[in-house]
């Protein structure tokens, strides 16, 4: 009778041999990548991660339309959009580095975990080399972290919290959209001009990362003007009825209500504030005012008549008259029958900026792309002259102060541009305390693999 | 004092919506024994009946104004509603402005029909299945309703304003020497809820149909043995419950712009209301609805949130735990309901 005897050493040797044998086919067949998802064939894949379900689905849909338009223009289809107006002439309409651009999409659901999962799937299964999109700062920070670990580039979509290019900045992440600090800096002079320097503000703030940074920024800017902050109240993100939070404003002695809310929260809180007649009141001898620091066209449409006269800020508005804006509005408008939103414009610009950086760098290697984007100065994408600052990967450009239109002539011009705040007035040092101070660093670029 | 009274009014207002939804949930549970997780979706559909009517009344004729330009520089297309064309501008605007109250007329037959189809087409197949199965199927149905509404109307909230005459602020405390400005439509909503709740109770209490339904709720088998087709009456009660949810939704539309997610927003809270009130107890559902609405309102005040941070988000569940520990069957629950 034969007898098998297992020794520890024998088991380790056998295991190693079997393991090597199993790995051999993969080692022999797998192409050698010098960076994550290096394109080997005639195509390159981009990943568009936007909210396709959930409360920001309309915003995500607009982003996706713009991203698809950018891909068309990169591949030489359609009217070319901003390619002719873009100050960099590296893009030729023949894809990126001669490779036809294709894309995959993911659904962030405006949830950080879902957004990470869909980005991970696009990177690992679909071979996406760049991720773009999103309509929330929580999502942006989460996906940016993932892209840094995976060694792909993240071109953020709509994210307004200071942290995205502040304490959570990453070498592989870039933000074209403006931020809460810039909103505060742009709004303050207009608020002083229109409402005076002796005001008492009451803040209602969405209780999450973006709301906190926006409240901090607006509070700092308005207090610097001489305004007094009467109270700051955090409201749960899931709130639908804000009447309990609006009612105390009436007797608080405040004469300005600042709504640090976005999306459905903003539509509901503004509607409730109007219902309670706040804008018809006079407090401290002054007319009561409402400020919504971050506006979007889709929110404005949701708020309807209630936004008339209410001040806020935007990254972009289709009514801008520069050549890049006109080209983008024409391209988007003729295809979809309406002007683009500012989240659509930022995603469109980001896709083109990424493609252009690859062309100028002559590679898809993320570290080459990072080098090409850092300190890059450009124009012709709709916002006017813009710079991607090297130290924090934040775009610096003029910021728009807008107001709900009193007499809109169509359903599209719900907002009117009050002032274009020059970039110099919204610029801050990279180590500003609101952006993580000296401790905040980009870290090193990661090419993956 | 003024601030306290304002929060009481806010609570009554929120409580009205909770009470109406919970009332419908309890009607369905009390008659058919079904835990209907699609009930919040019925509330949402009610609101979208108002949105739909508003859109129908806004159907327009397009005229091209060559002298004006649109955003692409093409001749501007101006929309004029059919209603304004037929009745003149001011009368047309008035009709459009009253779309929410007008939607009440439409919502009752629509919701009765939806309730009837839901019950006959799906829910009845689950009467003899465990409660877990009923919850799963009705929750699935809620998601289907939600996604259909999103596909048609989008994910953004849609403004559905109250008529101009009821859109302002009424100072309720003027005759008491207090400053108590409160949105007119919210007062209308509270009054409307009181009428609907009173109507449902009167229907059950003072009509023969209601008497049979109440008898069926108490002892279904015996009523059946008397030769009464209790199933048909219970099917109708499902429709009535759906209509109550729809009415609650249609009138709530001017308070907060409706969106496809409303059903889920209200569902969990309404179930807590039903449990706190006592499973199967109609007066309990109404009482708990107002009680929890007022408590939630006070918990959202600055004083409460600074004293106990986060209390506004947990107050309803906290109170539910305390009440269920003290009275395991809820405030007005009866022995034997869901205890077999």
Query: How would you write the strand order of the largest sheet of chain B?
Result: 1-2
Query: In this structure, how is the largest beta sheet of chain A organized?
Result: 7 strands, mixed
Shape of chain B: globular
User: How much is the average pLDDT of chain A?
Assistant: 91
Task: Output the structural class of chain A.
Answer: alpha/beta
What is the overall shape of chain A? globular
Structurally, how many domains make up the residues of chain A? 2
Please identify the top-level CATH class of chain B.
Mainly Alpha
Structural class of chain B: mainly alpha
The appropriate CATH architecture of the largest domain in chain A is: 3-Layer(aba) Sandwich
Q: What is the total tally of β strands of chain A?
A: 17
* Uncertain runs of chain B: none
Helix tally of chain A equals: 12
CATH topology description of the largest domain in chain A: Rossmann fold
> N-to-C terminal Cα separation of chain A, in Å?
51 Å
The CATH architecture of chain B would be: Orthogonal Bundle
Domain count of chain B: the total is 1
Q: Helix coverage percent of residues of chain B? A: 55-70%
What kind of oligomer do you see? heterodimer
Q: Percent of residues of chain B in beta strands?
A: 5-15%
| Residue-averaged pLDDT of chain B | 90
Short structural description:
The complex is a heterodimer of chains A (449) and B (340). With 449 residues, chain A is of the alpha/beta class.
Account of the protein in words:
The complex is a heterodimer of chains A (449) and B (340). With 449 residues, chain A is of the alpha/beta class. Chain A is built from 12 helices and 17 strands. Chain A folds into 2 domains: 43-178 and 318-396, 3-Layer(aba) Sandwich (Rossmann fold); 181-314, 3-Layer(aba) Sandwich (Rossmann fold), CATH 3.40.50. In chain A, the strands form 4 sheets. Chain A has a 7-stranded mixed β-sheet with strand order 7-6-8-11-12-16-17, sandwiched between helices. The N and C termini of chain A lie far apart (51 Å). The model of chain A is unreliable at 22-30 (pLDDT under 50). Chain B is mainly α and 340 residues long. Chain B has a single domain (2-326), classed as Orthogonal Bundle (ABC transporter involved in vitamin B12 uptake, BtuC), CATH 1.10.3470. Chain B has helices at 2-32, 39-57, 82-87, 89-97, 99-121, 131-153, 184-206, 208-218, 220-225, 230-252, 262-277, 282-299, 302-307, 311-326; strands at residues 60-69, 75-81, 169-171, 181-183. The longest helix of chain B has 31 residues, at 2-32. The relative contact order of chain B is 0.19. The chains are: A alpha/beta (449), B mainly alpha (340). The interface between A and B is large, with 47 and 44 residues.
